[in-house]
Amino acid sequence: MAKSDRVAAIGVGYSTTGRRTGLNRRQLVAQAVTAAMRDCGITADQIDGVVLHAGIAGAEPPGLDRIDALDVAQMFGMMPISFYNSDQGGPAYIHAAISAIAAIQSGQAHTVLTVRVINQRLSSEQERDSVQGPLFVPGDSQFTQPFGSVTPIQTISALPAQRHMERYGTTEEQFGAHVISQRANAALNDDAIMRDPLTMDDYLNSRFVSKPVRLLDCDYPVDSASAIIFTTEERAHDFAKKPVFVESASLSATDVLPAGFEKVLDMNHNSPFHAAELMWGRTDLKPADVDCAQLYDGFTIIVFQWLEALGFCGEGESGPFVESGATKLGGSLPVNTDGGACNVGRRHGANFCIESIRQLRGNESGARQVKDAEVAVWANAVGPFSGAVLMTSS
Amino acid sequence: MGISSIVIPESATAADYPPIPEVDNLTSFFWEGVANHQLLILRCGDCGTYIHYPRPICPKCYSMDNLAPERVSGRGTIYSHTTTVQPFHPYFVDKVPYNLIVVALEEDENIRITSNLVDLPNDDIRIGMPVEVTFQEVAPGLTLPLFKLA
């Protein structure tokens, strides 16, 4: 793509984030969008598109307020707008980002606000309260839930992780090395929630949820909203912050939900490999050009598949690659420099986009800044669907 | 009508039953087969493709009129497995730790069946183990296709 046709990210913002904030979705969104607009000094009349992704993991808390993209546009006085999209499915925040990028590339809008909002309680509370009497399960789930396959921890995480271990010799300590590394990054991030350093003993003593997955392999459910504003390259220089550019982007689906996670043909080689192939096919850059990678860590094993899919190590070699220290700050490929969703909270991918932008701006990441970062990749989701975006600083 | 006729006592709670299949037009053959202790998988009579989970059309040749359940061997190998320690549903509170397996069927390894292995300590389960189907009534009126070592 000609340089002048690129899409740029210009503003980012987070809401208050934490457990039981008492804030509903409109309140969280209002905070995050305000933060993103202030970040780049944009006004509502300069935005002509809104994409909101509002799905949550597990059952919705009772009484959750309804919100869609038009609610956001109306709250901020952005009407009339020329592009909008609201959805609950797909690979979380990256679905919104790709939609916005595609809208700008096609000319349906020039400046699109993307928002991800999550309002949820502890996963265990949601699961418990979602069950009243005997539960009848329709659709594909009737082939999985009766056997006790009732949480993504089993299907997105435990089954693939177990297969990776038996197939490639990946070890618990290699999973632990990643968990410890990204916690160390979180200690350098004021936006992170979990910031105390971890040892390997801490990891190995963390309780199992579904073997081989430990509590410390799971991201951390929170109330949170995130907002990122994209615009054309032509307009990108009109705002307060140094723009960051979308070099290439991809979205992939290889199967369906809800039970697709158990029947992806290869649990260690699924949509991320397709998404990575598409993303690299749309740029002249190579994996060796990447200065930092922000890889979705709903569960540890997902990071491992992305490292392989994106070509940072050979297939099956993510365990030794992580164990070597390559993915730590100061290593050849720092990964999840903000601490990842395990430590900043489950923002369903938006944090990886925001951290990529901050790293590429070059002056916003403090002690976790990757020196001279010019190229960053971020990725979201796994299994039946996912996506990846490559961004550059110039 | 097999499982679609299952009668849940008024007093039954979520602790008494695992999630119960809600049978529909496309899936009733599967659960009727299970009630008769047969593992049936939908197959395209035109091109031979096995189709699971059931769909109204063959993804290979788009046949819609020549799809029929076929009894399969019930044999396969373990594709992956986990032992779940934390219960996420009331029925499993006194069942943990329990295993969950995904079986690749002998007839077509791309057909995957989620189930439980019944006759081996959880820690001894390994990928690649040969298994075969066995039918057990796990709660009154609810029979499931489980697996044992072959």
Lay out the secondary structure.
The complex is a heterodimer of chains A (394) and B (150).
Chain A: E1 7-14, H1 25-40, E2 49-53, H2 69-75, E3 83-87, H3 93-106, E4 111-118, H4 123-130, E5 136-137, H5 152-168, H6 172-186, H7 200-205, E6 208-211, E7 213-214, E8 224-232, H8 233-236, E9 244-253, H9 271-280, E10 292-295, H10 300-309, H11 318-323, H12 341-344, H13 350-361, E11 375-382, E12 385-392
Chain B: E1 20-21, H1 28-35, E2 40-44, E3 50-51, E4 67-71, E5 75-84, E6 98-105, E7 112-115, E8 130-139, E9 142-149
Antiparallel strand pairs in B: 2-3, 2-4, 5-6, 5-8, 6-7, 8-9
Properties at a glance:
heterodimer; A: 394 residues; alpha/beta; Peroxisomal Thiolase, Chain A, domain 1; nine-stranded mixed β-sheet; two-stranded antiparallel sheet; 19% strand; globular; B: 150 residues; mainly beta; five-stranded antiparallel β-sheet; three-stranded antiparallel β-sheet; 1 helix
Give a description of the structure:
The complex is a heterodimer of chains A (394) and B (150). Chain A is built from 13 helices and 12 strands. With 394 residues, chain A is an alpha/beta fold. In chain A, strand 11 and strand 12 form a beta hairpin. The model of chain A has no long low-confidence stretch (mean pLDDT 93). With 150 residues, chain B is mainly β. In chain B, the strands form 2 sheets. Chain B has a 5-stranded antiparallel β-sheet with strand order 7-6-5-8-9, covered by helices on one side. In chain B, strands 3-2-4 form a 3-stranded antiparallel β-sheet. In chain B, a hairpin with a 5-residue loop joins strand 2 and strand 3. Chain B is globular, with a radius of gyration of 16 Å. At the A-B interface, helix 4, strand 5, helix 5 and strand 6 of A face strand 1, strand 5, strand 6, strand 7 and strand 9 of B. Strand 5 of chain A pairs parallel with strand 1 of chain B.
